[in-house]
Write a structure and sequence with these properties.
- The protein is α/β, with parallel strands linked by helices.
- It starts with 5 loop residues before the first helix and ends in a 31-residue tail after the last helix.
- The protein is built from 21 helices and 14 strands.
- Helix 5 runs parallel beside helix 6.
- It folds into three domains: 276 residues, Response regulator (Rossmann fold), CATH 3.40.50; 33 residues, no CATH class; 152 residues, IlvD/EDD C-terminal domain-like (Glucose Oxidase, domain 1, 3-Layer(bba) Sandwich), CATH 3.50.30.
- The longest helix has 20 residues.
- The protein is globular and about 75 Å long.
- Helices cover 35% and strands 11% of the residues.
Length: 574
């Protein structure tokens, strides 16, 4: 086969010598690079994101693997997306990262790519780009961080923070203890070591077939992760030679496998948006109904925080994702191809390991089924999401009066006020916190339990928003209500004291207000003023889709099969 990169390096006129001179400037002889596949190493390393601090070592390992397999590695950096420091949300820039990687792959002499991902939005952005560019690609994640110790217990990143924050706000945790937790909260590079969004998306990348089997759960500090990166680099060269591309791997059966893995792992609600976005780039049919249907019959089997007790290191010790998938074997598409060139069925262990500590069997699940639910009703006609496995069972059917916050700033100002009109029966509502309203759909949906209620011993209340929440969070929290308030969704019409009814078994979320009154409110409603008049945020609010369509840009989703073809660059004089 003729390599794509040959258009540059064996080009006509001055293009060939000019392009080859670039590689010579790296100190490489023509004998070293001539005629070999060129593999991009896409690294999202940045000191602005602690999740990615081990990526330079992984890049070096991947490059070593590429060279050993007879390829030429060319490393390039991309925007870094980290939830801790990037405000209002890394989600605002997921689409930008996907565009950047897609255009880098399109415009350069690359035959394939190794995608080095880390924090929450990085892996989905990379998979979106890979889907659109459709060059041979393989995913490698940074891996979960090693756990620090506090009060003799391992610290689950994210989950421990939210738990002890409420203790601190209620005065049951001293300032000294709070600082002590901070000191050992992030004692390692890598992503959150719970089943937050980063770990969820790594598991999904592996379940989709885009990552080497058994590598999603390896600790960021484990030398086996370097071996995985080296093997991934070598495999990228083999993918080019076999002409095995993302669209041959990320098929509808592969997405169904990923949904099973996602639900069985009790994964982050953010994965719903990301999977819809990736599928949309491929024109693979996927909707909220698919998530609900799979969740209704799939048990939650992973006993890892926040749905369970263990951490990602425990999951890895129990065999990682292949061990979990082995329990789901009868419900998987075992003939789905993976980046190894083998099928999922060929990669799975034949038996089920005995005495697993965190990977449960279907006979002893964390939850028999229904770990996730899609809600509809007059408050979310296009759907809303609840992670039922981390919600309070007593609140899954609930009716209560609304306490409304028109913005996140108002929430911060009022939530701990002694006179906040909230009780244990209240439904806390946050609006104008969605993709358009902020913009960027930040993780503001895990509304804190009001301090006055914490002091009364209340640890959970029903919360509803058009926002997201961290995958490390827990509680009875309804998210992604669509359409969002800022574009006229029903959440914009709720007033303090209105009764809201949540019925998770019935898949319903309803505002118990007469339709005539709602129509009066709708007529009087006007959209909030636009906050950004220029730049990328303006592009975002003008083109972002709602959560039920993955929050991708409308112009990045192909409208026909013809749109799937990546337009090649004109290789000529610059």
């Amino acid at each position: 086969m003729r390599l794509r990169s040959a258009e540059w390096f064996e080009g006509r006129d001055e293009i060939g010598p000019q392009s080859r001179a670039v590689l010579r400037s790296l100190g490489w002889s023509e004998e070293f690079f001539r005629g070999k596949p060129v593999i991009g190493i896409a690294s999202s390393w940045s000191e602005l994101n602690n999740c990615s601090l081990n990526l330079p070592a992984l890049a070096a390992a991947a490059k070593r693997g590429v060279i050993a397999a007879g390829g030429i590695p060319l490393e390039f950096n991309t925007i870094a997306l980290g939830e801790e420091l990037m405000k209002p949300s890394a989600m605002l820039y997921r689409n930008l990262m996907a565009m950047e990687i897609e255009e880098t792959l399109r415009s350069h002499p690359l035959d394939g790519v190794v995608l080095l991902g880390n924090c929450d939005k990085t892996i989905p952005a990379q998979l979106m780009a890979a889907a659109s560019a459709n060059l041979p690609a393989i995913s490698v994640c940074a891996g979960p961080k090693s756990a620090g110790q506090w009060r003799g217990q391992p610290v689950g990143s994210g989950t421990a923070l939210w738990k002890y924050l409420d203790e601190y706000r209620a005065g049951r945790l001293s300032e000294e203890d709070w600082r002590g937790l901070e000191a050992c909260y992030s004692c390692s590079v890598g992503t959150c070591n719970t089943v937050g969004t980063a770990s969820t998306m790594a598991l999904i990348a592996e379940a989709l077939g885009m990552m080497l089997p058994g590598t999603a759960t390896l600790d960021a500090n484990d030398t086996r992760r370097l071996v995985a990166a080296e093997r991934s680099g070598a495999r990228a060269v083999e993918l080019v030679r076999a002409d095995l591309r993302p669209r041959q791997i990320m098929t509808r059966p592969a997405f169904e496998n990923a949904l099973r893995a996602f639900i069985a792992a009790g994964g982050s609600t953010n994965a719903v948006i990301h999977l819809l976005a990736i599928a949309g780039r491929l024109r693979v049919p996927l909707s909220l109904e698919d998530f609900d249907a799979v969740a209704a019959v799939t048990p939650v089997l992973l006993d890892v925080q926040p749905a369970g007790r263990g951490l990602m290191a425990d999951f890895d010790a129990a065999g990682g994702l292949p061990a979990l998938l082995a329990h789901l074997r009868d419900d998987l598409h075992l003939d789905a191809i993976t980046v190894t060139g083998r099928t999922l069925g060929e990669e799975l262990p034949r038996g089920r390991a005995a005495g697993e500590s965190v990977v449960r069997s279907a006979d002893a699940p964390i939850l028999p089924a229904g770990g996730l639910a899609v809600l509809r009703g007059n408050l979310a006609p296009r759907g809303a999401i609840i992670r039922a496995v981390t919600a309070s069972p007593r609140l899954l059917q609930h009716r209560g009066p609304a306490v409304v916050f028109d913005s996140y700033q108002e929430l911060l100002e009022r939530i701990d006020a002694p006179d906040l009109p909230a009780t244990a029966d209240s439904v806390l509502v946050l609006r104008n916190a969605g993709a358009v309203g902020v913009p960027g759909l930040p993780e503001w949906g895990s509304i804190p339990v009001p301090r006055k209620l914490l002091l009364e011993g209340v640890t959970d209340v029903v919360r509803v928003s058009d926002s997201r929440m961290s995958g490390t969070s827990a509680g009875t929290i309804v998210l992604h209500a669509a359409p969002e308030a800022a574009v006229g969704g029903p959440l914009a019409l709720v007033r303090d004291g209105d009764m809201i009814e949540l019925d998770v078994p019935g898949r319903s979320l309803r505002l118990l207000v007469d339709e005539a009154e709602l129509e009066r409110r709708r007529t009087a409603w006007s959209p909030p003023p636009r906050k950004h008049a220029r730049g990328y945020p303006r592009l975002y609010v003008e083109h972002v889709l709602q959560p039920d369509e993955g929050c991708d840009f409308d112009f990045l989703r192909p409208q026909s099969d013809d749109d799937l073809e990546l337009v090649p660059p004109v290789v000529g004089r610059s």
